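User: We ran a pulldown and think these components assemble together. Before we commit to crystallization trials, I'd like a predicted model of the whole complex to look at. Sequences follow.
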Amino acid sequence: MNQPIIKIENVWKKYDMGSVEPLVVLKEINLEIKKGEFIAITGPSGSGKSTMVNIVGALDKPSWGAVYLNGENVSNMNESSLAFLRGKTIGFIFQQFNLLPTLTALENVMLPMEIIDQDENKSKDTAEKLLNKLGLGDRMHHKPNELSGGQQQRVAIARSLANNPDVVLADEPTGNLDSKTGKFIMDFLGQLNKEGKTIILITHDLELVKYGKRVVYIKDGRIEKEIHN
Amino acid sequence: MKLKKCFKLSWNILIHSKLRSWLTIIGIIIGIAAVVSIVSISQGAQQQLEERLGSLGADILTISPGASRSFGPVSGFNGPLDRESSSSSSDEQENLTSKDILVLKNLDNIQYVMGQVSGKADMTYLSKTASVSVTGVDESVWKDVTSDEVDSGRFLVQSDSFSVVLGGKLVENTFENKIPLNSKITIEGKSFKVVGILTDGNGVYMPLDVARTVLEDVGNEEFSSISVKIENVEIANETVGLIEQKLMFSRGILNEKDMDFSVSNPAEMQATIQETTQTMSLFLGAIAAISLLVGAIGIANTMFTSVLEKTKEIGIMKAIGAKNKDVLFIFLFNSGLIGLVGGIGGVILGVFGSALIGYWSSTLSGSATRMFGNTALTPELLIGSLLFSILIGMIAGAIPAYRASKLNPVDALRYQ
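Assistant: Here's a predicted model for the assembly, 645 residues in total across the polymer chains.
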């Protein structure tokens, strides 16, 4: 009944290091992520987590193997259609928030919708609703540097939900936040999952891992084990 | 992404840009301002030249005393009358006489011959006095030999004695009040009636005999210059040669080196002057082009740095769905906008600059600088400079924008 929304088939990722031996970061990764899952991917630093983010989020193509996003093979897509599919299917939340510093909170949330050519008024409407939902109704016209870290991350969450994507990919979302704000963010992600969104959480923090219903452990570029909570 | 949105984002980058971008814009402003003022000045000079040369009349040759045969652009600007008066002030030369006129009258290809005297005299109108250049003309042939046209009133006729015709510019500009037709003016204590006003010029024209009584140092049978109207302009050069030959003979001159008169050939003069102004325009244009080039390199430099600075933002935009094309347009528009803003500033500065140069050179005496008194600011020049500036911005920004668009989102996101 449940089609995988992201399917990773025997993926290898290596980086050419010039004259030195190529660096193999991911080895023989097989992973299916189904709609509505809350999956946590974890591992020590240097295990290949970040590369996993790039592969799972279709930001990067594998050296070998195949990645299917909504049934489409990412390797066969050109840059433009991949960008479009990524913008519609995956919402990103980064550890560094990664908001555009010269745009207001509202404009930052509107941007993903405008990138895929949504109507401006409709985009504005949606963005306002999302910011209100995250308790930032009175902060919409502030620039990121006028917001606290927690507020910035909430704007980033609102932005990740702008195109109503199936998947929200959160890469160490609480890494730069105090524990109280961190908890708010994690609870919000849990809430989103209950509403039907697929959540992929990448973290090294074993405290956060417990939010995931399925936890994938990576070590030395391989999937070491999978645990269902 | 819609182009409109790309444009908005590039505008956003521009207004949040650092001092560096504004310095780049200043570079473009200076370049475009230089182009605008230089082009307007040389176009103005060109226009003025053409007007002057047009009023000179290609079919009218002027014979003046003195051996100078060369016409630089400088002396050419004064028009025939000024030039003669200035050259006749030299002591050693012999004036032209009625004998010379007789010689000229019988030559082929010559329609009319008119001797004239000229010099400076004080003119009084409504108790204000100014020094003007007075020309005595042979009223029977004057209208046939001049390229001037009457704006109001008439040319001099043979029954005129204390009548004058005034140049259009003199009427407008010399005195506080405009001099109307039929008014009375006083020249060197004698009263004259204004019977005609020419369309242009600064001269005062009166019958030859009267002028001899007004001007000092003019002998009864002598002329400051002789104007000759030729029938066929095509053979003007041959006619000039013929005139020189016959006059040398009648004046008893054996060697061309000893020639004590000169014959102006308007066609030849035109070519010389035009060549000179063209060379000058080219030279000034090259300076403007160099300053623009420096500005363009400045834009390219700024754009490269800007792309580098915005690497992470490019990564973010790509992660949330922006295509290569979107990023390309954002940065291309950004550099185009730098060009546009610089262009607008440059055009404004250039308009001021050329007005200032025009004003400054018109207050200076000396025909070489007066030549720049007229500047021509055509809408084509202004719009053209703006478009050119935008184009330069986009060309300079093309490579940085392309590099930005090709950034790998993973690497760009990791960039600090």
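Chain B touches chain A through 23 residues (CB under 8 Å). That may be worth checking against your pulldown data before setting up trials.

User: Thanks, that helps.
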